[in-house]
Design a protein that fits this description.
Chain A: It holds the Pfam family PIG-F. The complex is a heterodimer. Chain A is mainly α. Chain A is 73% helix and 0% strand. The chains are: A mainly alpha, B mainly alpha.
């Protein structure tokens, strides 16, 4: 097995914890603070961010690459640093795709893009750091070849595609409150992220077996 | 090379066949779906008081009598004296009848009752008569006013094709009043002035542009009231209040401003009613106050559709004759808005307008004698009969065999049974009328009331049926015609798809053998390709939802931005890759260079090489900037015009600029003009051969630019005079200057391209360089004559050069033309679209493009569509810029202004086609061109995708939307949303044809000329050798 390879059970545990974090965040918002995404998107997103952020940074730091040169705390620091950078990238994408830029939406956009950053950019930063070859691989190959790639890229791609699809109902004239930015996009992103995690949890064992066969 | 299964000629003929089929299918469908309703020309005159005959010649009669004479003539002929002398028509824009009359049996809400105390007291005491006057969609002001005064509901195409003249030319009440010498006065919405430009003695138009203003707009009307009510000179006073509509647009139906506004309206009604009753007691000059609303509003305060809330408009008659015996709260009736026109016509003693489909309002003629009442119904029936005869030739002529009894009253589906039914009802009404008359004369008064009631009811039966049939005339569609149209379009679409697949195979599989594509491009399936296919499917499907049609600008912006984000991703990927493999590449000798590369590497020695543009040397890591430019500019463009229907009122940049005033708009216009000049002259300076000719073109470009500058400055300072002669002549000068420059370039440039000089002076260098590189294919070439490869090579070179020159000229002149024609606020969006196209060309033509050619063509088309909506266009006919269509036209010409309107509306898609010319010329065809191709194959490779893809994309959308339209033909929004979109789609199809024609004609023309010239030169050279 190559360095940093991830086992199926480890991947499953990782995704399970991420999922639980997300669900816990939503549960706290719903029950604890009486917040809902529709009524108050900015504060709900902030709560989700606060709950899910430590979970993701902590867990992905745990499966970091290059363990000899990189301590756990360094991986966590990388994740914390990556959060605003990823948020910037995601906000750029969202605004270019038509997200509103009015003052009314600034807070929501910031929190939403931070959450997207948690789904997409932060895991990769935690695991890979600044390793150029790893980044190239994760960007260039649409087909993941290793377990870690799977664990990082599938949920991320799921979140992005889900958010993209989630934007489609926005122009419809149904006059529902959830059609506002960024509510349905967030729903889409979370749904896509969950699907991605599920796919990853399925794929990692398959990939692992393949690698195993090859090794033999 | 010639083994290709798809020759150029075959490709062209298949394409042309498919296009012809598409045109056929489209016209069949359009004819079937948008029937043109026959209308009667001219104005009703004295003949309307005589029974209709079958000979149309008899009906036409001299009517040029002086107004006084005409009035008395009408009085004599009609046998019904006018009930009133003066009319006050008070239009309250957007007032739902529910506010005044309640809904159904329920009275209006308490708040509404309290807001209009005077009106409610009039209603409850029986001094006023209220009707629910159901409005026909589209529920917007202008068509509704037309319906009220003419009694006609225009067919869809009537509405669509009437933008170049908003003047109401059909027969209508106001013109009838004018004919009998009335003085007309109008205060309020300037729509009236647009409809009737020269009819009013006094007028004060207010604009409905500032929707936020709910106070001033009504004050500007009411301030005239005191004077006008005291004045004796007018016969018709129109007051059109917009404030209530504005209140609705801002706060919706239940806005907190609504009661206050209703109170204000109530006060106006009170004032008019008091004033008119005090001043005029004699019946000749008695005044009728008619309070109407043009349409209702939804809960959100919008209108335009056909829901109950929107069509629920009011007709309230207040006057001395209206007082009825029956208690009027029960007399509210659901009628049609068009019924107002015939009622007013007969109340005031003028003929009913010719195309009226309305029916006299029941209860409005109760004060007349029985004979007169029947007479009014008879007049209405005669008028409708005349209109029916226009729809059904020979209706009620000769054969009187239609008295077939009541049995087929219900089974009236087909036209013939409908005809019989109407015929029967008409005859019954006439005979009942005659029977009553007979009874009157003979003095038998036993069952007088019964006879009268029977006659009245028979008339109303006929009138109601005829009116309903006429108003639904537009909705029956020959399904066979529609289906055959769709099938033909489908066949054409399949043909086009088949052709494009063949071409695809040709280019990427057959050619793949001998061309050296980068590995990632020849990879079978790329993300952007998958996305484009999915995106196109999503777009086609989204057209099935009415709000996605209304808000199509979001779809296009979303798809385009996503595509360019994917490009960004690809670029970043390749950056990582290059950085990783840089070291490896440095060591590798450049082995597999094709002929092209060998020469273009040596480009420092080529002074006449137009392909040595700065960006072909663009560093790989700078490739990212054009994509970023496209993305960021795309977002600016999205924010410029909010667009669409549902959120059009939200703030955007164009509204901000409008508020900022004309100076800043003017500054931006000049700014973008300067940018166009700079970019244009830079683009011209890149052409390094035929410099003298380019100087001429550039000079005329500068001249045109100055003319546009002059126009901008002029039009801003003299804002009032639209028909300013100097402005017109400036625009005309520009047309001449730009047109001749473009025509000259297109025709001349392939002839003066220095093929002889170029070729002979380059043979040496060419061979030198090739020997130095020691490429195998060059080694075969002899120094004495040009080889086939070299001919092909120079041929391609020449095409590239000429197409670049032509494309640049067309594109920059097109932008100048648009700067002249478009609304001033669109100057920056134009610049932005232009820069987006330029950036895309730079990105695609820079060294080593990362995408397949067809993706690049699709991306340019996407940009064109996103830009189309970025310029403020939408799928509603309201956004068509009518004002621009008259710039530089001295006399009224429908054709010319139609062309200008098309140019303005489709500015951006056509720009993307023109920029495709530059794209073709700059595209580094390294990988695609084996040097030993025949010239026709080269042409095929050059223009195959740029010509076929637009046709295919358009065809797919057209077929998908046609099927949608057929399925939606009974949808609520079919006339307000889907049909306008279909018209836009037809125009877009035309636009694609034009664009493809321009590309194909230019490249083929250039190719043929150059081919002939190189061949001649070659044979000369060989003779010489």
């Amino acid at each position: 097995m190559g360095y940093g390879e991830i086992t199926a059970s480890k991947a499953l545990a990782l995704h399970f914890l991420c999922g639980v974090g997300l669900a816990a965040g939503y549960g706290i918002a719903r029950l604890g603070c009486d917040l809902s995404l529709v009524a108050d998107p900015a504060r709900t997103l902030r709560l989700l961010l606060v709950v899910e952020g430590p979970v993701i940074i902590g867990i992905y730091g745990w499966v970091r690459r290059d363990r000899e040169h990189c301590s756990y705390s360094k991986a966590v620091a990388r994740g914390l640093l990556g959060l605003p950078i990823g948020a910037l990238l995601n906000a750029f994408g969202a605004i270019v795709l038509g997200a509103p830029v009015g003052l009314k939406y600034w807070l929501s956009t910031i929190y939403w893009s931070s959450l997207m950053s948690l789904f997409t950019f932060v895991p990769a930063v935690c695991v890979f750091g600044t390793s150029r070859t790893d980044w190239q691989r994760i960007l260039a190959y649409s087909k993941p070849k290793e377990g870690v790639d799977c664990v990082i890229s599938l949920p991320a791609q799921g979140a992005v595609i889900g958010a993209w699809l989630g934007a489609w109902p926005m122009p419809l004239d149904w006059e529902r409150p959830w059609q506002e930015w960024p509510i349905c996009v967030t729903y889409g992103a979370i749904a896509g992220y969950s699907v991605g995690m599920f796919a990853s949890a399925v794929f990692v064992p398959v990939l692992g077996r393949k690698v195993h066969v090859k090794d033999d | 090379m010639s083994s290709s299964s798809l020759t150029c000629g075959k490709l062209a003929s298949w394409t042309i066949a498919a296009v012809l089929l598409q045109i056929l299918g489209l016209s069949l469908f359009v004819i079937g779906f948008f029937p043109v309703k026959p209308t009667l020309p001219g104005f009703s005159g004295p003949e309307s008081y005589r029974a209709p005959t079958c000979d149309p010649v008899l009906d036409a009669e001299e009517r040029d009598l002086p107004s006084e004479k005409l009035r008395t003539l009408y009085k004599e002929l009609s046998k019904v004296p006018p009930s009133y002398g003066r009319l006050v028509l008070m239009v309250i824009d957007g007032l739902p009848a529910e506010f005044v009359l309640g809904r159904g049996d329920k009275p209006p809400t308490k708040a509404m009752m309290e807001a209009m105390p005077y009106t409610q007291s009039l209603l409850s005491s029986g001094k006023a008569r209220g009707y629910y006057a159901k409005a026909a969609p589209p529920t917007v002001t202008m068509p509704r006013l037309k319906a009220m005064v003419s009694g006609a509901i225009g067919g869809f195409l009537d509405v669509a094709f009437n933008f170049n003249t908003q003047v109401l030319l059909d027969d209508n009440l106001l013109d009838q009043f004018k004919r009998i010498g009335w003085e007309l006065v109008m205060h309020g919405d300037e729509t009236w002035i647009k409809l009737f430009p020269r009819i009013f003695t006094r007028q004060d138009g207010v604009s409905s542009f500032y929707v936020k203003d709910t106070v001033e707009v009504d004050f500007n009307v009411s301030r005239h009231l005191d004077v006008e009510l005291a004045a004796e000179d007018w016969n018709l006073l129109i007051l059109h209040y917009l404030g209530l509509d504005h209140v609705g647009h801002i706060g919706g139906r239940h806005s907190t401003l609504m009661p206050a506004k209703l109170k204000e309206m109530d006060d106006v009604i009170k004032m008019i009613h008091m004033g008119s009753t005090v001043h005029h007691q004699n019946p000749d000059a008695s005044t009728l106050l008619v309070v109407v609303s043009d349409h209702g509003m939804t809960n959100g305060g919008n209108h335009g559709g056909s829901s109950y809330e929107e069509t629920d408009s009011l007709a309230l008659f207040i006057g001395s004759g209206v007082e009825s015996l029956e208690f009027s709260m029960n007399a509210h009736k659901a009628v049609h808005q068009v019924d107002i026109a015939p009622t007013l016509a007969l109340l005031f003693g003028v003929p009913i307008p010719k195309n009226n489909i309305g029916v006299l309002l029941r209860g409005m003629f109760d004060t007349l004698t029985d004979e007169q009442r029947l007479r009014t119904l008879q007049l209405n029936s005669w008028q409708l009969l005349r209109l029916l005869q226009a729809h059904l030739p020979n209706f009620l002529c000769g054969d009187v065999t239609c008295i077939s009894g009541e049995d087929n009253l219900q089974t009236d589906q087909s036209i013939s049974s409908m005809k019989e039914n109407l015929c029967y009802l008409y005859s019954r009404a006439i005979s009942a009328h005659n029977a009553w008359l007979l009874h009157q004369i003979s003095g038998l008064t036993s069952n007088d009331a019964d006879d009268l009631g029977y006659a009245v009811n028979s008339y109303y039966d006929f009138l109601g049926n005829a009116s309903e049939w006429l108003s639904h005339r537009a909705t029956d569609k020959p399904i066979n015609l529609l289906l055959s149209g769709i099938v033909i379009m489908l066949i054409s679409c399949v043909l086009l798809l088949n052709t494009v697949f063949k071409l695809f195979k040709e280019v990427y599989i057959t050619q793949g053998k001998y061309c050296s594509q980068p590995k990632e491009i020849s990879q079978v399936w790329q993300v952007d390709e998958a996305f484009v296919l999915i995106g196109l499917v999503i777009h086609a499907l989204s057209l099935g939802a009415s709000s996605m049609v209304e808000e199509e600008q979001y779809t296009w912006h979303f798809l385009t931005s996503t595509l360019y984000l994917l490009f960004l991703l690809t670029t970043i990927r390749s950056l990582f890759k290059t950085a990783a493999s840089d070291l490896m590449k440095m060591k590798k000798p450049e082995e597999n260079l094709t002929l092209h590369l060998a020469v273009s590497n040596d480009e420092s020695s080529y002074t006449t090489n137009n392909r040595s543009l700065p960006w072909t040397k663009l560093q790989k890591n700078h490739q990212i900037y054009p994509v970023l430019v496209v993305l960021i500019f795309g977002r600016i463009l999205r924010g410029w015009h909010q667009g669409g229907i549902n959120w059009v009122h939200l703030p955007d940049i164009s509204k901000l600029l409008m508020q900022a005033g004309s100076f800043s708009i003017k500054a931006l216009q000049i700014f973008s003009l300067l940018n166009f000049m700079l970019v244009g002259s830079f683009a011209f300076s890149l052409v390094r051969s035929t410099t003298h000719f380019v100087h001429i073109v550039r000079t005329s470009y500068f001249m045109s630019g100055c003319l546009v500058l002059l126009h901008i400055i002029n039009s801003q300072t003299h804002n009032i005079g639209p028909t300013d002669s100097s402005a017109t002549s400036v625009a005309q000068l520009f047309y001449i200057c730009a047109g001749s420059a473009v025509l000259l370039t297109v025709l001349v440039s392939p002839w003066i391209y220095p093929v002889n000089h170029e070729a002979s002076s380059n043979i040496g260098k060419f061979n030198l360089s090739s020997h130095a590189k020691d490429t195998s294919s060059i080694a075969e070439s002899s120094t004495s004559s040009l080889t086939k490869e070299m001919i092909s090579f120079y041929f391609q070179w020449g095409i590239g050069h000429c197409t670049y020159l032509i494309g640049t000229t067309c594109m920059v002149f097109w932008c100048l033309l648009q700067l002249l024609l478009q609304q001033p606020v669109n100057a920056i969006p134009l610049l932005v679209i232009f820069l987006q196209e330029t950036a895309s060309i730079i990105y695609f033509s820079s060294y080593g493009s990362l995408h397949k050619q067809w993706i690049e063509v699709v991306a340019m088309l996407f940009l064109g569509m996103a830009g189309h909506f970025g310029l403020g266009n939408s799928n509603s006919l309201a956004t068509i810029d009518v004002a621009g269509a008259f710039i530089g036209i001295s006399s009224h010409s429908t054709v010319l202004s139609g062309i200008l309107m098309f140019i303005i509306t489709h500015a951006s898609p056509l720009l993307s086609f023109l920029s495709m010319l530059i794209y073709i010329s700059l595209k580094d065809m390294n990988g695609l061109f084996p040097s030993n191709l025949r010239w026709s194959s080269i042409l095929q490779l050059l223009i195959g995708f740029p010509c076929l893809l637009p046709l295919v994309l358009n065809s797919v959308v057209l077929v998908a939307f046609t099927i949608t339209l057929l399925l939606m033909r009974n949808h609520l929004f079919v006339w307000s949303v889907f049909s306008p979109k279909y018209l836009y789609l037809c125009a877009a199809t035309l636009c694609v044809y034009i664009g493809v024609l321009i590309i194909a004609a230019t490249v083929v023309y250039t190719g043929v000329v150059l081919f002939v010239r190189t061949k001649n030169f070659n044979s000369k050279l060989q003779n010489f050798g």
